[in-house]
Specification:
The protein is an alpha/beta fold. The chain has one domain: 3-Layer(aba) Sandwich (Rossmann fold), CATH 3.40.50.150. Helices cover 27% and strands 21% of the residues. It has 8 helices and 11 strands. Strands 7-6-5-8-9-10-11 form a 7-stranded mixed sheet. α3 packs across α5 and α4 packs across α6. The longest helix is centred in the N-terminal third of the chain and has 26 residues. It is globular.
Amino acid sequence: MTISLTRRHLLATAPALLAVPAATPARAAGWTRDAYMAAMVKSGRPVSLTQAQFDAIQSRKPAAMQRIERYLKERLGSADPAVMAAFEAVPREYFHYLYDSHRATPGDAYEANPKPWALGFGSALSDYLGQAYMTQKCEPKPEHVTLEIGTGSGFQSALLSRIVKRAYSIEIIEPLGKAVGKIFAPLGYDNVETRVGDGYYGWPEVQGGFDIIIVTCAAQYAPPDLFKQLKPGGRMVIPIGQPFKRGQFLYIYTKDSDGKVHSRKDVGVYFIPMTGAMMKQPAPKPAPLTH
C-alpha cells in the first residue's frame, strides 16, 4: 500500500472529544462564520467569506469525516474515537491559506478527493486521510507531550493538541513558521507551542522529552537527537527515504522501558525532504535496533 502524505509538495497548487481541552470558541459557541472571520483577523489573516460560502464548506465536512472513518477502518482495523473527535473539533478551513500571497483558500477544505494543498514558500497542507493515518499511528493519549518536526499549516499539531496534554512544533521556513505560530491562540488552543528552527536537533529544552515525535518531511535517516528526546515508552513516526524519490517508507520507532529502540517499517509514502542539517550531516553509524 502506498499513501501520499506530502507536506512540502513543490508541484502542489491551490485555487482561489475525548480529551478536548475546555471550551475553545469553536466548541463553546459553535463554529460560525462570525467565529471564523474573527479568528482569522486575530491571526493576522483577514478574509472575505459570505454566509453562503461558509455554509457550503460546512456541508462538505460530514462526508469528509465518513471518508476518514472508513479509511482508518480499512487500513488499521478501527478508527480511534479520539482521532475522530479531534478531526471533528478542528476547523480545517481555518488552515487553508497561501502565506506567500496572503490569500485564504477555505473553499478548498473537505474536498472529495483528498490531496495536498499549497501553503506557499514550498510548503503544503497534507491530505487529510494521510494525516488521519499518521495521527492514529502515533497513538496519542491525554497525558502525552508531543513534538512535530515540520509545522507547515499547523493542522497536524492542532489535531494532536485536541488529544494530548501539550504539543510542540518546529518549522524551518522562517516566514511560514512565524505566521503559523500566530494561528493557534485565536482558536483557544493554548497547549500548542511553536518555534522556527531546524527540527533535526529536536527541542532539547523541553524537560522530560516527548511521548510522541511525528516527522512530516522525509529524512534520509532518523536524527540521533530525536531518539535522545524520546521518552521510554515513546513512539516516533517518521518517513525515511531519498530526497525527491519514490521508495520512501513510514517507519515506527519505539523506545522500551530499558531505553532500547525498536523499529518497524510501515507503508510507502512520498514526502519532500527534510532540509537543514539533514542535508549536511553524514549518517551516524547504525545504532543497535530490535526489529
